[in-house]
Amino acid sequence: MSTRRTSRTSRTSAPHEVVERALALSRADGCVVIADETASANLRWAGNALTTNGVTRGRALTVIATVDGKEGTASGVVSRAAVTADDLEGLVRAAEAAARGAGPAEDAQPLVPGGTPSPGFTEPPAETSSEVFADFAPALGEAFRRARDGGRELYGFANHEVVSSYVGSSAGLRLRHDQPTGTLELNAKSPDRTRSAWAGRATRDFRDVDPLAMDADLARRLAWAERRTELPAGRYETLLPPTAVADLLVYQMWSSGARDAAEGRTVFSAPGGGTRIGEKLSGLPLTLRSDPGAAGLECAPFVLAHSSGDDASVFDNGLPLEPTEWLRDGALNRLVTTRHSAGLTGLPVASAIDNLLLDAGGTKSLDELVAGTERGLLLTCLWYIREVDPATLLLTGLTRDGVYLVEGGEVVGEVNNFRFNESPVDLLGRASEAGRTERTLPREWSDYFTRAAMPALRIPDFNMSSVSRGV
What we know:
Blueprint: E1 2-5, H1 15-25, E2 30-46, E3 49-69, E4 72-81, H2 88-101, H3 136-149, E5 153-169, E6 174-189, E7 196-203, H4 211-224, E8 228-229, E9 234-240, H5 242-254, H6 258-262, E10 287-290, E11 324-328, E12 331-332, H7 339-345, E13 356-359, H8 366-371, E14 375-389, E15 394-407, E16 410-415, E17 417-422, H9 424-430, E18 433-434, E19 438-440, E20 452-454, E21 457-468
Parallel strand pairs: 1-3, 8-16, 9-14, 13-20
Antiparallel strand pairs: 2-3, 2-5, 3-4, 5-6, 6-7, 9-21, 10-11, 10-13, 11-12, 14-15, 15-16, 15-17, 17-21, 18-21, 19-20
């Protein structure tokens, strides 16, 4: 089955022309326009057979109008999909009306001045198509064959998306960024559905994804699950694989706003006021960083803000992004700031960046960490993660698709699932060993955040707070 959707009327004008036209229509004191062109391709499969594939395209336009008043500058933001030439003036006027009807914006700052336009600003948007799967699809078909022969069933999907973002402003910005994002999730099940194992990958183009190797790893995990042991809740030495570490630290990153910390509302608030910047959070030499130019994890090198919030400001659109170390040698080094919150807290500007990397200098693979474990648990992934207490960043969630018992350096079987209660900040402080850093897909947050590189971590006393009967 194949599907294809496109909004022809919304794509009759080149995106840079739409940006220029919207700016020309603006009557506000300031204006920022963001045109996002999206192309995506996907495959889905179940029971060792492809079920659907499709290609979609679309456009979304965001207009940010600013109006200067006696009490300050107000902003109005309106975003719409499938905007046609006939819709454009109405969209601009709606943003202006929203600005005039709003009070002064707390985060108001001068718009970022323009510089040299991005290369390709006037060029057509980037595209993707089913061709992105040209090498991947045949290998996936071979994985289906091997799975059938091995008595297991494969389920999952592969998605590739390219977003071309064009940013223009009345201050002279003319910027463009093309962001490819690929995700693959592969789940293997026994025919009776009593055993399940998961693997996921993030990629830019699917040329570095090997479904045969993933299937072989899943087959090994299903074999481990043929022997099952029930364990009670408690604290266990636990090996967190890179995907689980990523899910926990992405949430930590989302909770690291400088303003909230300075106002005493988060785990990064210092007793008596201020923040914990400079405080040692881990005995391991951990560096947690973001870098727009990180190889394989490249992301926008400037701020792209479609709305304002505690950790983002529409006034910062176009602000250049620099490599940032959030933790350095185990100590808290930076918290997320906009220009506005940096002024409030006295901290350096450190805008959020769309990737996250953790490195502790480790060289061991996950298998080598298993070999060095006398008795403990090996997780596959976490899901249904929710915040319990922002003051400590206590999170709760469930294990999923395989928790394995390790004894004498070998996996000896599968155990039941658990609910956990842990703070990622506390985990960094208690981690006793880190493996080598590798690119990974955060399973829980893969709809929002895919560009991560993490090591596996050994936690001596991970808190499995209760037994879960889910798969």
